[in-house]
Amino acid sequence: MVDTRNGSTVTEFVLVGFEQSSPSTQALLFALFLALYSLAMAMNGLIIFITWTDPRLNSPMYFFLGHLSFLDVCFITTTIPQMLVHLVIKNHTLTFASCLTQMYLVFGVGVAECILLAFMAYDRYVAICHPLTYAQVMSRQVCVRLVSTAWFFGLINGILLDYMTFRGPFCRDNHIENFFCEAPIVIALSCGDPQFSLRVIFADAIVVLLSPMALIVISYARILASILGKAFSSSRGKTFSTCASHLTVVIFFYTSAMFSYMNPRSTHGPDKDKPFSLLYTIITPMCNPIIYSFRNKEMKGAMVRALGRSSLSRAESV
């Protein structure tokens, strides 16, 4: 164990997580988070399988949806399994390299998802406001480029933010008051002045959070204007419902991320950080399949077909 009191360099961190909770509370949290994690993995895994194998779901919306579910699987697996282990065992230490890697994955996948949500909003805008040119504007090649762009900027951004977080030595307290390595908390533990790194991360958050959010707001504002300009119909109500669902995901994800990375550290604390961290690390990945997919008739039909094929193959094997 590292002795941080005599100024020696920190080589490992301790994730405080929920260790101050009673054993009964930890057992309850373990059962709850395990259920949520299993549910999120199962639903997102089903969506990935369906969107990548069902030929009827070949539109850009389902192409993006499959990649969103893949990002959610990556995102939730980066943090939640470790938290579940720490709810069972008493050793909450994490090596320097493990913390760096986890933070890079959280940054990379999180930023990629921010950008992908913006592209999905743009896709809905083109589909609703410019249906005649939709196939040309959102061709398969364009969709592949957009997804690749989201991944590229996410992974590159992760390198920048990891560098800003770990650029200085750590010689203070090595206890992280959260259940995973979150950048603002880790930066506060460094030996030097953390303000420069925090300002860079704040500026980066403005770009990677507010820019996609602006595109999302503009896209849905134009969709709303287009819908209101048409006579009332059943398709109008369906479009309203779809847009409201998508905006729910955006509000969940962006508000929790902005609280974590765009608020002054003086307003933070373990009781405030953990709920928001849970919101964007487990609640949003679990809600995405429900909001984007299970209210969609085509997705429901694809799920029935997939489950039917699975049942048939099991019956034939017997």
Provide an overview of this structure.
It is built from ten helices and three strands. The chain is mainly α and 318 residues long. The protein has a single domain (12-263, 272-303), classed as Rhodopsin 7-helix transmembrane proteins (Rhopdopsin 7-helix transmembrane proteins), CATH 1.20.1070. Strands 2-1-3 form a three-stranded mixed beta sheet. It is globular and about 65 Å long. The model is unreliable at 1-7 (pLDDT under 50).
CATH fold call: Rhopdopsin 7-helix transmembrane proteins
**Gross geometry:** globular
Class by helix and strand content?
mainly alpha
**CATH C-level class:** Mainly Alpha
How many strands in all?
3
Strand proportion, as a percent range, falls in under 5%
Question: What is the count of distinct domains?
Answer: 1
Largest sheet: 3 strands, mixed
The spatial strand order of the largest sheet comes to 2-1-3
Mean of residue pLDDT values: 81
Using only C-alpha atoms, the radius of gyration works out to 22 Å
Assign the CATH superfamily: Rhodopsin 7-helix transmembrane proteins
Brief overview, please?
It comes from Muntiacus reevesi (Reeves' muntjac). The chain has 318 residues and is an all-alpha fold.
Write the layout of secondary structure elements.
Elements: E1 12-15, H1 23-53, H2 60-88, E2 93-95, H3 96-129, H4 134-137, H5 140-166, E3 175-176, H6 183-187, H7 195-228, H8 234-262, H9 270-292, H10 297-317
Parallel strand pairs: 1-3
Antiparallel strand pairs: 1-2
Protein name: Olfactory receptor
Organism: Muntiacus reevesi
Keywords: Cell membrane, G-protein coupled receptor, Membrane, Olfaction, Receptor, Sensory transduction, Transducer, Transmembrane, Transmembrane helix
